Amino acid sequence: MPVKIKINGREIETEAGKTILQAALGAGIFIPHYCYHPRLTIKGSCRMCLVYVEKTPKLQIACATTVAEGMVVETENEEVVKARQSVLEFMLKNHPVDCPICDKAGECSLQDFYMDYDGRPSRLSPLDSKSKKGKRVPMGQTLVLDQERCIMCHRCLRFMKEVAKNECITDAKRSDRTVISTFPGELVDDPYSMNLIDICPVGAWTGKDFRFKKRTWLLTRSSSVCPFCARGCDIFIDHEKGIVYRLCPRENEEVNQSWICDQGRLAYPAINDNRLLRALSKNDGRLQEISVESGLSYVAKLIGDHQGKILGIVSASATREEAEAFLKLIRASGGEVAGNFRKEARDDFLLRRADRDSNRQGLKQLGIDRPAGDGIVKADLLVVLESLYSEPINGALGKKMAVLSPKRSELVESALVALPIASYAEAEGTFVNFEGKAQKFFPALELKGDAEPGVMMIKKLAIKLGLEGK
Amino acid sequence: MNEFPKILSANWGKPNSAGIETYLASGGYEAARKALGMEPAKVSQEVLDAGLRGRGGAGFPAGRKWTFMPKDNRPRYLCVNADEGEPGTFKDRDIMRFDPHMLIEGIIIACWAMQANNSYIYIRGEFEEPAKILEKAIQEANQKGFLGGKIFGKDFNLQVWVHRGAGAYICGEETSLIESLEGKRGNPRIRPPFPPQKGVFDQPTTVNNVETIASVPFIIREGIPAYRKFGTEKSPGTKLFSVSGHINKPGVYELPLGYPLMNFINEVAGGMIAGIKLKAVIPGGSSTPVLRAEECQNVNLDYESLAAAGSMLGSGAVTVIGEGTCMVKLLEILTHFYAHESCGQCTPCREGAPWAAQIAKRIHEGKAELNDIDVLSSLGANMMGRTICPLADAAACPIIDFPKKFREEFEAHIRNKGCPQAKPFPVEFK
Questions:
Q1: I want to staple B270 with a disulfide (CB 3.0 to 4.6 A). Which of A181, A248, A407, B249 is the partner?
Q2: Pick from B7, B33, B6: which is nearest to B153 by CA?
Q3: Which residues, at least 6 apart from A414, have a Cβ–Cβ distance to it below 8 Å?
Q4: CB of A250 within 8 A of CB of A235?
Q5: Is some CB atom of chain A closer than 8 A to the CB atom of B399?
Q6: What is the ipTM for the molecules in this complex?
């Protein structure tokens, strides 16, 4: 049922049952908040979103006050501004303000809101002390907690309880001694633990992986899709000068909401390390760097020499575009194409899929749904298209093999010739997830070394083979 | 004392006053029998018409609170709030120690009115003795058939349990009491939903103070006019007052509401200790605004008169403060209490109360400047009305009032670089 309310004199139409905060955000009116998170239950304790509601004796929290027809709300009047300033002052009373050594600096809501809504000098007397708490509490394999930076918004507690369904942390002690803590002797051991870093509005939860590695404002943020399983979570790739420093979830209601799993998040080093940067060919049993042009000629010659006895194997985590071009090339050369699938894991209740390939459905749509199997034995030449996380192929080692790969893999090591291609982070392409949702992504990074996008490399091969246009 | 009517304390002082025989001899459980012969709604109406108001502090009409319970098929609960933790308040303890059956009978009547089959008495963890007495009384009532199944031949079951708290003041706030009862940390819940919609185990729940419930049997047994004979039009009946501080006879007294405060101090409670002059009174527990001696003169002990004087009846805990008391020290003690007891959820309370405690301590120690008094007052103003539960309001009260009403004392501390008095209190308590 539609409801009309007025915020700062502007009439807004919203839905019955919505809160003032939801209505305001929906209309593009920002009300600062800490404990509110759209995917978690309402806590109502940070008191940052206090607003004036006509005909109520005191300020109301916008996050927990439902709209009513004709409601008149002020979010910027003097009373509200003062209340907001005082909440920030209270938050900063015990906050260490150690921004220079804080990983969150640059993307911290406390910094942002202080600059936007307060900006006054501290009234804390040097004679009054700040509360002393754990400064670097190890909370498990992935996390470190700074209890002094915590503003007690309880987002982490609600995330673990409501989303991760693993109530392994709690608030302990009282008053300004309150800390977030695990139960005695226990640690946060959860496949989704690192989402706490993202939802923490301040620098209380930090990741062991990213800690002290990079100031956030130096990072460039590019949108992408996680290639680590069939979910295809939407992610951000945060990078500087061609090096990726972290992956973060990118909101998509239909795919991953606001979350990603730790495994996918921590898979990024493969983008930085052990990449295939030059074309290689085997000479006297050893791989030697050659030009891409020579490599292309070599592969074309091999394909030409083995017409009709070729097996193409494409990684199910290659993009749909790569798979399509590859299929076309191999078929035109009289060969067959099989898939290379990663070993299955297990579905979980939230995001992770047993199918750990990002584009198995895409391959299926092209008719590639079987692994190579016996075909390897019968084929005289294997042409393999790898992806960043593809696994070695059983029975392939020792065969005559041409490999297109983004990484210096086991297959590359035993190939006659290898051509460097871009990973998902440097290419444009599409993954089709387990539900059949096709998600297109664009390059986050510049191409590395002599690598070219897989589609481009295949196209050049086709030209060499005189197949282009056929 | 003899001139005053005794409703709640009628049996106190009798031999074995906590035993069921003593209670039965005084007409005990007749009210419950009578109530179960009435329509439940009629019982709520009687209590509403008698004008019984919540004795825990807020003073909300008890009968009306009961009618908030939804009429659906969910199980309903009555929680009796026996988490008496407010500094200066010790009235419920004596009800449970000296006449636990009056409380149990009140529970039977209230549960019948609300058609609740389960009642929890959430008792302060430190109340070990009252808890044991209550347990025994419940056992006796069970044996007599006043609790359990088919009470008074009616198709009505009732179980009463005693649940001991773990030592947190905040658990006297009704929603954190509910959280604690469920086995969780006692953080107050955001309202709505209110307990009648979603209380204990998410079921309809009413939370009443011990004294409120203990007042019910008299109303049912003797009728509305008998109850309204005492007290005032808007504050009928009697109330227990726990008086402490610089007074000759500290303790618990039952008085009709509307009794003059000064008469209570000077006559009933034996006057000021060692003949010192009255300086101030905190009339309803540490969460209520302080009154200077001159503000106390024409004040009566009822909801309206104290509200008119700018304070509250609260829990009826009268803290008497004698001349020679350092109000800065007193503020330090009070703020220290709230700083310790804030649950730590809401920002203004979690940070404001300990900050105020630090400043109050510094002012008393002479390590403060004039500006600190203003910072202190502003902290109170910024806490007031800005949190989920009223603990911050309670903490903010003295933080705002003390520097306002005793400004000269605060300034003297700063000029003098410390407390101008040799001792903060005129009398040493053992």
A1: B249
A2: B33
A3: A396, A397, A398, A401
A4: yes
A5: no
A6: 0.94
CB atoms within 10 A of CB A187: 16
Residue A60 contacts B where some CB pair is shorter than 8 Å: no
Q: Is the pLDDT of residue B2 over 50?
A: no
Distance, CA of B30 to CA of B193 (rounded, Å): 36
| CA–CA gap between residue B201 and residue B79 (Å, rounded) | 12
Nearest 10 degrees: Cα torsion A12, A17, A21, A24 = -10
Instruction: Give the residue, B429 or B394, on which the prediction is more confident.
Output: B394
Percentage of chain A with pLDDT > 90?
97
State whether A178 and B387 contact (CB < 8 Å): no
Please give the torsion angle defined by the CA atoms of residues A244, A247, A248 and A251, in that order, rounded to the nearest 10 degrees: 100
> Chain A contact for B185, CB < 8 A?
yes
pLDDT score recorded for residue B428:
79
Contact (CB<8Å) A86/B342: no
Distance from B412 to chain A by nearest Cα, in Å?
20
**d(C-alpha A193, C-alpha A17), whole Å:** 32
Q: Is A46 on the interface with B (CB under 8 A)?
A: yes
Residues ≥6 apart with Cβ < 8 Å to B93: B84, B127, B130
A57 — pLDDT class (breaks 50, 70, 90)? very high
Q: What is the pLDDT of residue B4?
A: 86
Identify the burial level of B13 via C-beta atoms within 10 angstroms of its C-beta, where 0-12 means exposed, 13-18 middle and 19 or more buried. exposed
Measured distance CA(B425)–CA(A359) in Å, rounded: 79
Question: Quick check: B59 pLDDT over 80?
Answer: yes
**pLDDT at res. B376:** 98
Separation of first and last alpha carbons in chain A: 58
Closest CA to A313 of A194, A217, A245, A399: A399
Tokens 């349990």 sit at which residue?
Answer: B161
**Beta strand residue intervals within B210-258, DSSP E:** 238-245, 251-256
Structural tokens at position A254: 């239909």
Q: Are the beta carbons of B342 and A175 separated by less than 8 Å?
A: yes
Q: Are A331 and A366 in contact (CB under 8 A)?
A: no
pLDDT confidence bin for B68, thresholds 50/70/90: very high
3-state secondary structure of A273: coil
Residue contact A151–B347, C-beta within 8 A: yes
Contact criterion met (CB < 8 Å) for A131 and B354: yes
B166–A contact, CB cutoff 8 A: no
DSSP 8-state secondary structure symbol assigned to residue B152: G
- Enumerate the residues of chain B whose CB falls inside 8 A of the CB of residue A84: none
Local structure of A291: helix, strand or coil: coil
Would you say residue A215 has pLDDT above 60?
Answer: yes
Position A36 pLDDT exceeds 90: yes
Q: In this complex, do A44 and B347 lie within 8 Å of one another by their Cβ atoms?
A: no
Which domains are assigned to chain B?
20-228 (3.40.50.11540), 238-322 (3.10.20.600), 327-416 (1.20.1440.230)
Out of B350, B368, B372, closest to residue A152 by CB: B350
Pick from A48, A170, A176: CB nearest B354: A176
Q: Give the up-direction half-sphere exposure of residue A399: CA atoms within 13 A in the CB hemisphere.
A: 27
pLDDT at A199 over 50: yes
* Structure tokens that stand for B11 in this block: 């049996």
pLDDT interval class at B286 (50, 70, 90): very high
Nearest to A454 by CA among A318, A361, A335, A330: A318
Among the partner-chain residues A43, A91, A152, the one whose CB lies closest to the CB of B344 is A152
* Pairwise CA distance, residues B344 & A90, whole Å: 12
Whether pLDDT at A162 is above 90: yes
* Token code pair at residue A14: 């919203």
Structure tokens at B222: 């003797």
Question: Per the structure block, which two tokens stand in for B107?
Answer: 């529970």
Pairing of strands A179-182, A137-138: unpaired
